[in-house]
Design a protein that fits this description.
Strand content: 15-25%
Shape: elongated
Membrane topology: Multi-pass membrane protein
Largest sheet: 5 strands, antiparallel
CATH topology of the largest domain: Beta-Lactamase
Distance between the termini: 97 Å
InterPro entries: sCache_3, Sensor-like_sf
Strand order of the largest sheet: 2-1-5-4-3
Order of helices and strands: HHEEEEEHH
Structural class: alpha+beta
Subcellular location: Cell membrane
Radius of gyration: 30 Å
GO cellular component, one term: plasma membrane
Keywords: Cell membrane, Membrane, Transmembrane, Transmembrane helix
Length: about 160
């Protein structure tokens, strides 16, 4: 099996790279996977009409930089991670951009919101319960005396 970097060097806009990208999208791991070669030309894209065209967002990974950003591209508003693809010699030969829509992130957050509120409420209830137990225990140990009464006993001279 040839290495992924050799596929990129061939600059073929179809084939195995597109199948790999589609497999990730098919597993609902991401909304899109775009693979480019070292000039920023798309070798994979969910929209076949975009194959072979220059990417619409800044190809920062071609400079060897890994980046996560919120951008508006050909597929709309998304949060995406861009990472460089290196050859065996260490040269950048392309980039992979994987993204999810901002709408799907908002939906996931709203879906988790009920759990977050429930966890916060349970935590607060546990804290109140622990506080009451601690106060009762201290009251028993001090025979029900308040702090100022204990202070008076300590400062009272013995006769």
């Amino acid at each position: 099996m040839p290495s992924r970097t050799s596929w990129i060097r061939k600059r073929s806009p179809r084939g195995e790279l597109q199948r790999l990208a589609d497999a990730v999208i098919g597993q609902e791991q991401a909304y899109f996977v775009v693979i480019t070669e070292d000039r920023g030309l798309r070798l994979s894209h969910p929209n076949p009409e975009e194959l072979g065209k220059m990417v619409s967002t800044d190809p920062v990974a071609l400079e060897g930089i890994e980046a996560v950003s919120r951008e508006h591209g050909t597929l709309g508003e998304s949060v995406r991670a861009k990472v460089p693809i290196y050859s065996n010699a260490g040269a950048v030969v392309g980039e992979v951009s994987v993204g999810v829509t901002t709408d799907s992130l908002t939906g996931a957050l709203l879906g988790s919101f009920a759990w977050i509120v429930l966890f916060a409420a349970l935590s607060a209830a546990l804290a109140v319960f622990a506080g009451r137990v601690t106060v009762r225990r201290l009251k028993r140990q001090t025979l029900g005396l308040e702090p100022n009464e204990i202070a008076q006993l300590v400062t009272m001279p013995f006769t």
